[in-house]
Write a structure and sequence with these properties.
Two copies of one chain form a homodimer. Chain A is mainly alpha-helical. Helix content of chain A is 58%, strand content 8%. The relative contact order of chain A is 0.10. The structure holds a DNA duplex (30 and 30 nucleotides).
DNA sequence: TTTGTTTAAGTGTTAAAACATTTAAGTTTG
DNA sequence: CAAACTTAAATGTTTTAACACTTAAACAAA
């Protein structure tokens, strides 16, 4: 549905403002979608984000700050999120050898198993999920315009 | 900066996933930007959203549910947000005549003054703000692709 | 009417975000 | 070396989000 319809806007919205509102609205919509997808697995969005970051760097681990710098939401409190993931058994924490201030976080086998379960479930419904109506070219164009938006 | 750089991604990201990540990342970036803009005025993003909705419907007011259905973030607790705005003097609440379950919320003169102050300040720096690098046509295209993304 | 259902708004509670502050280890410089 | 500074992680606190639940009014049907 078009943004104006979603927001029940009466008067026309200027182009740039429409872009701003649409980014915020779509992100909220997407966030809600992702939260629903993750609920059965007992993960929140930021926790899932961390697991995927660690999976991408596996078998190497990352420090807390390294994780934070790669997150979608940079205001996340990574220490606490990692601690929750550790309690659930999805990551492991080992102190850094040289620099004893640092802690290196690594995804566990359980964590990797969880990610692959989630991925499988999403692949099954990937043709009906978020962004499924976009062609590859449109998806690329969208990402490019968003990059330009932040300049 | 391109998303891959922002997220320090090593391997290439598939197009649709890039779109998803970029929407979430850009929204978080934008949210941070807006929060900073609004801070001097003592408003949060959702509060500002409500004020603008009420300004758009002025002089008519809206019920709590009407406001909610027009908000960017539909999970907002409008009752509490409206109460805060009322305590700050930016909105007024009057019980609905016929249906005594409803409350009609209207923006006050103080609230309208606040909005115009904020707008003026943003116009001044509108050439350096969010989305300023996009042309009108690109902004429209971006909004259109986001509409399609949610289908 | 009275019973049940739906709708609007508000409230209670838990968890998370936001932001500042603290602790401890490492670095730099006089 | 010692003091000052910087950096990494954790913690404290306040606010807000998220979600369920309550209350009260309107509506619908027996």
């Amino acid at each position: 549905m078009k943004l104006e319809m979603e927001l029940k806007s009466t008067r026309p919205i200027p182009a740039k403002q429409r872009a701003v509102l649409n980014i915020l609205f779509t992100a909220s919509w997407l966030d809600c979608y992702i939260t629903r997808q993750l609920r059965p697995y007992g993960l929140t969005g930021p926790q899932y984000n961390i697991l995927r970051i660690l999976n991408g760097s596996f078998p190497k681990g990352l420090s807390v700050l390294d994780i934070k710098s790669r997150m979608l939401d940079r205001s996340s409190n990574v220490s606490r999120l990692v601690e929750k993931l550790r309690l659930s058994g999805f990551v492991e924490r080992v102190p850094h050898g040289r620099d004893r201030r640092m802690v290196i976080v690594t995804i566990s086998e359980t964590g990797k198993k969880l990610l692959s379960d989630i991925e499988k479930a999403q692949v099954i419904e990937s043709n009906s999920g978020a962004g499924s109506k976009l062609t590859e070219a449109e998806a690329l164009e969208l990402a490019h315009l968003l990059d330009k938006f932040r300049e």
